[in-house]
């Protein structure tokens, strides 16, 4: 394999061939070393890592010497050099100074290789092996590099030139083949090297007439701080370089990469930019130009104001617009935007950069354009601390968000939609016009028209408008003037016409309820009724199964949760003068009655139990909570006997429904459910019923017995429940609980 490294008949393949073959050589060297190391194991005790040659046994030494003698008998120079370099580490078995003696000899051997490309890769391999086995022997590495410098003029000799003519390879392409090897050699030398050595390297390069290839490798290999501190020196050397062969723009690109990592002296910064940009702006090839400009944009953003950034962006637009050159440079243009928003976090400053939005117009491929918009929005959400009303920011970001929104189509993935919606919502939350609530509402109306295809954005807008209505109430301390009352009604109307456009049924239900609560708090009673009626009429449309996080789940639990929340709101909603007593509660009960529940579900009974809690609360003289400045039914009816009679009628109807359901659970397989529901209903009566009523008292005893009848009741729960009743009986006006406790037997499990 190593013989192949003398063959340069396909010269462009040489660096790849070098990597493949040295990989085989490394494996070979490792296997030989491990084989000899295994021979040193004495009484099953292996050698320590820092062993000395004295602790190596004779057999291992003999084998090791045998390897070196075999290699020495290889006639050709290149295979002999590579194979010996591959097992260089094995010298540790023979003597302490073995490696330090071999390295200079191998370095000198390379002088016998005539082809400069083959020689430079041989030096790179020796440097790599040397750094691995003896990093302290840096002198040999330095000597290796200086040898290379001495033979560098061979590159322009007749032999090489003739070979290039035969293979039809141009000099610039040929020179780039040297870069990986020289870069590696210089990186090995520069590793933890003192400043003095690096300065000496620079001087050597100058003596060679500032060879561009070497200069490029020096800038790639040396520490960024070292290069940045001497930026003006390097610019001087670049200017003096011979233009033929290695292009100057690549040198400026390498310099720019260093200046992105380390800062040059402050006084030189503007001059450095001017010198570099003079060369970059003259580049005719758009690809060469953008590769350079991309690197120097970061330097400009890092050290200068928006004026310089604007000039650079204008120059990029000027170079990349002719013949639509930007279409082949989207990654670099994206990188430029990324760098600009990394350094400019003040968005009013960013959008006042005149050429920033025209620069965005170059992204005409939709998916790339959307990616760029996402980057800008992510930066805005991350860095914008205070809410804004700056018209420059709002107009620019609305345009960017509109671009993202308009990219959504039937094929867009749900994750992508969710991500875009989150970014747009982040922007909406950051917009605030302070006390100018009308302007704020106008913004939300405009946003609704622009982002109608993304449901999470519409949901956010409804929440934002509800919040706006509540802020208005807070400012007015609940006492609306004619103007604020009209404004709040406008907010309520916004929500009422937006909610039906949503597809998720539970989102609609919850928003109707939430918006109804907001309308009620702002004394918009007829509007609140409209929301609650809409919610009641929507309940029959709830499907049996709904999609939750991509999986189909039964909807019963979600419906139960919503209805419980709804009941707690209905307590404070006053009756409409033209609709009859408890019209909303009756309407909701009819809907629940007609809804088709799962056969094995007890949710209907659980809902009816919660209705009893509500009706019990409604029968009190004063309700347990109120909405400020809204008269609930306790004030409207003042405990009127007809009103209480209506509540009692409803209670009887609901209790009858619950008892009918308990009867249907009399089969053997449903007895456990019957027991649990009976006890739950019993607890409801104890907590909310008036047990001085004989019928109710008898019903509670029957339910207690039913819960225990078939042995499914939990004895601990029953005992605790009975103890609670006995404790309650000691309270004033609760003496009737004493009689009840005597009528509640505890059945044994037998």
UniProtKB/TrEMBL annotation:
Chief subcellular location: other
Its annotated compartments are:
Endosome
Q: Name one GO biological process term.
A: protein transport
**InterPro entries reported in the protein's UniProt record:** VPS35L
Annotated TM spans: none
The cellular component terms of Gene Ontology attached to this UniProt record, alphabetical and capped at eight, are:
endosome
| Entry keyword set | Endosome, Protein transport, Transport
Q: Give the family, as the similarity comment puts it.
A: Belongs to the VPS35L family.
Q: Output this protein's name.
A: VPS35 endosomal protein-sorting factor-like
Originating organism: Jacana jacana
């Amino acid at each position: 394999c190593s013989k192949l490294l003398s063959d340069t008949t396909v010269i462009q393949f040489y660096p790849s061939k070098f990597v493949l073959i040295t990989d085989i050589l490394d494996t070979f060297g490792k296997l030989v070393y491990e084989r000899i190391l295994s021979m040193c194991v004495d009484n099953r005790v292996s050698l320590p890592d820092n062993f000395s040659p004295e602790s190596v046994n004779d057999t291992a030494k003999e084998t090791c010497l045998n390897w070196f003698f075999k290699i020495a008998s290889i006639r050709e120079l290149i295979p002999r050099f590579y194979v010996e370099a591959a097992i260089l580490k094995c010298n540790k078995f023979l003597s302490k100074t073995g490696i330090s003696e071999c390295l200079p000899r191998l370095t000198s051997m390379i002088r016998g290789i005539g082809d400069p490309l083959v020689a430079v890769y041989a030096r790179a391999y020796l440097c790599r092996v040397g750094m691995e086995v003896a990093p302290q022997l840096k002198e040999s590495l330095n000597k290796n590099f200086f040898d290379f410098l001495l033979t560098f003029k061979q590159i322009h000799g007749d032999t090489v030139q003739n070979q290039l003519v035969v293979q039809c390879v141009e000099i610039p392409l040929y020179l780039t083949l040297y870069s990986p090897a020289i870069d590696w050699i210089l990186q090995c030398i520069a590793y933890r090297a003192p400043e003095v050595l690096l300065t000496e390297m620079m001087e050597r390069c100058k003596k060679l007439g500032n060879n561009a290839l070497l200069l490029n490798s020096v800038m790639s290999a040396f520490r960024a701080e070292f290069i940045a501190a001497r930026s003006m020196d390097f610019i001087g050397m670049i200017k003096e370089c011979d233009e033929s062969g290695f292009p100057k723009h690549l040198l400026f690109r390498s310099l720019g990469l260093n200046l992105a990592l380390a800062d040059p002296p402050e006084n030189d910064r503007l001059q450095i930019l001017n010198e570099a940009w003079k060369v970059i702006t003259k580049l005719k090839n758009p690809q060469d130009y953008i590769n350079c400009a991309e690197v120097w944009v970061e330097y400009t953003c890092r050290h200068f104001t928006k004026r310089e950034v604007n000039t650079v962006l204008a120059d990029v637009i000027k170079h990349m617009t002719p013949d639509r050159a930007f279409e082949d440079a989207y990654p670099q243009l994206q990188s430029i935007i990324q760098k600009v928003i990394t350094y400019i976090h003040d968005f009013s400053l960013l959008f006042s950069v005149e050429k920033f939005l025209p620069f965005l117009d170059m992204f005409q491929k939709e998916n790339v354009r959307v990616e760029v918009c996402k980057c800008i929005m992510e930066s805005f959400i991350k860095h914008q601390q205070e809410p804004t009303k700056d018209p420059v920011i709002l107009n620019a970001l609305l345009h960017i968000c509109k671009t993202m929104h308009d990219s959504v189509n039937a094929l867009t993935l749900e994750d992508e939609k969710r991500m875009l919606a989150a970014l747009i919502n982040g922007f909406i939350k950051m917009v605030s016009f302070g006390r100018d609530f009308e302007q704020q509402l106008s913004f939300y109306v405009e946003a609704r028209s622009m982002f109608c295809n993304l449901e999470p954005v519409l949901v956010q807008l409804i929440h934002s408008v509800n919040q706006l209505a509540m802020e208005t109430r807070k400012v007015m301390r609940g006492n609306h003037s004619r103007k604020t009352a009209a404004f709040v009604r406008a907010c309520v109307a916004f929500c009422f016409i937006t909610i039906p456009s949503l597809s998720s049924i539970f989102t609609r239900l919850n928003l109707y309820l939430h918006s109804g609560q907001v309308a009620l708090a702002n004394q918009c009673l007829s509007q609140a009724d409209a929301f609650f009626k809409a919610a009641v009429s929507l309940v029959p449309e709830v499907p049996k199964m709904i999609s939750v996080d991509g999986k189909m789940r039964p909807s019963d639990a979600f419906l139960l949760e919503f209805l419980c929340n709804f009941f707690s709101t209905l307590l404070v909603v006053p009756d409409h003068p033209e609709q009859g007593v408890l019209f909303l509660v009756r309407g909701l009960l009819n809907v629940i009655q007609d809804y088709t529940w799962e056969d094995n579900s007890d949710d209907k009974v659980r809902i009816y139990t919660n209705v009893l809690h509500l009706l019990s609360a409604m029968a009190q003289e004063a309700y347990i909570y109120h909405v400020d400045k809204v008269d609930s039914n306790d004030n409207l009816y003042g405990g009127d006997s007809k009103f209480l009679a209506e509540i009692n009628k409803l209670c009887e109807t609901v209790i009858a429904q619950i008892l009918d359901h308990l009867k249907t659970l009399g089969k053997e397989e449903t007895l456990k459910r019957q027991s649990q529901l009976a006890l739950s209903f019993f607890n409801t009566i104890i907590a909310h019923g008036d047990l001085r009523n004989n019928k109710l008292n008898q019903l509670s005893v029957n339910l207690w017995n039913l819960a225990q009848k078939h042995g499914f009741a939990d004895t601990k729960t029953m005992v605790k429940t009975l103890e609670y009743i006995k404790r309650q009986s000691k309270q004033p006006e609760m003496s009737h609980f004493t009689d009840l406790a005597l009528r509640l037997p505890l059945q044994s499990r037998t």
